[in-house]
């Protein structure tokens, strides 16, 4: 899998005006968030660390995005491409994040583009 890392600048809905991305899927999704009229603000710099256990070891899951909508609703969004969607750790993180969101009155959303994101070259 090709990993593209970088930074988008001149962002209007990020409180920081710029955000780093760790994959092409994240970069594409950041552009979508900027264009979504329902989104008031979003960031990757949210300081959310959700504890979970993996094979008996204590770990922390840091979600990709915290998104706030114009109606005040908040959501955690996670971008995942193949093969990460199939990993046990991804399943455990998702379950833990859903529970975290329920306790906080938020929603959890998994963003994926499957084979397109996995095989795309830029």
From TrEMBL:
Pfam families: Tn7_TnsA-like_N. Residues 36-112 form the TnsA endonuclease N-terminal domain. It comes from the Bacteria. InterPro entries: TnsA_N. This is TnsA endonuclease N-terminal domain-containing protein.
